[in-house]
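Worked problem 6 (solution included).
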Amino acid sequence: MSVLLTKTYDFSPAGSLSAGDAGELCALFGDEPYFFCLEGERCSFAGFDPFEVFKASGKDTLRSLKERYARYSEPSQQTLTPFAAGIVGYLGYDYGLYQEKIKLHANDDLKLPDAVFGFYDRVLTLDHHAHKLHVTSSGWPEKNPALRQKRAAARLEEIERALKRGTQYLIPNELSIVSPLLSNFTKEEYLATVRKVLDHIAAGDIYQLNLSQRFTYDTAGERVDPLEIYRFLRQLSPVSFGGYFDAGVVKLTSNSPEMFLRLRDGKVQTRPMKGTRPRALEPSDDRRLRNEIEQSAKDKAELLMVTDLERNDLGKVCDYGSVRVEEMRRIEEYKYVFQATSTVKGTLRADKDCFDLLEACFPGGSITGCPKIRAMEIIEELEPTRRGPYTGSMGYIDFAGNTDLNILIRTLIHCGDKIHFQVGGGIVADSTPEGEYEETLVKAKAMRACLERGRDDAEVNHLARR
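Solution. The predicted structure is:
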């Protein structure tokens, strides 16, 4: 028998919560084990203290996760929230290398698990439209209905006591890392690698490839709080698919604007993103840059190729004839960049589930290239270090199979005393090495503006080399 208990709080001006902001939940619960916060336009979700943690690497990762998940899956229930209980975590890009049997070349220097997922029987949902906080619990891992009911009630009482205690919700005024920023490429090496990609395109091996470089801060001796960075970054540059996940061995702070896969009641959606321009302070310059991305033949071709790839991936697991491009090209505005996206939808086949969907589409085509497998082979040959979580995916799967996952771009990877972030761009036949290199710097700007806030503009705009 299914169990799901819900308690709702008002965060209107006269309500129980002061701000109704995900940052407040971070302040209240961020020190708890395996804390997560996933943010969206309508709802944001938070949770901690999973009843089980899954960590794995290698070719059997997704199959093993599916088997573990199957112990707790149950039919969908009518709830006040899209995500009442389920698994939250990340699937790293490197898993895709095993899935597609790509020969390994790059240095796996981070040595992180290919997947970390917590199993959460309790989720806090902020409904930004209704101004409500819903706290839900399914009572897992208890199997006896009476014991599940008892556990669920106790889990809700824990949250109520914490909400009554409250906390002081403050965003730091200044956040500055003073260590130099290093790259796994020099500029000259990156330019030379872009030329190699262009040679592959000229030879007909691929049509497009997403090449990236990784930046690293060594923060030994500095006081760096990953959750504080996340709270600051989300204020500096709000996005629809950002989030924070304490995975134990690594902490992910994601400022991603890109949806990977959304599955609800059998309906699938993906939203690839290709084409970037910086924002300008002067309105006339800002309009010029927006017009530039709107008219760019290169960017249009790039997005068209990726959209076609995603449509083909969905076709592997969706009903015949159901996959369609709902919106071919839309220019989205963020604080630091303009971004072009498309939207592809389909209906999942009755004999397929969320794990089949993930296997068919992973990793996302917007961060590999076309054709996908050959592009992945070339990436593995040309990028000096393994990607790890970067360009993988983070999000949730509820215990009924409903899924919402992002693409892990614009993401800080906190490992020990080091903070890594990686940025890239799609290379096509008319790309230029200098242009591709500059695009990576534009995409890095939001991260650097946050982390190096105490430095002057000349320092922030200078890229330290290896």
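Discussion: Confidence is low (pLDDT under 50) at residues 454-466.
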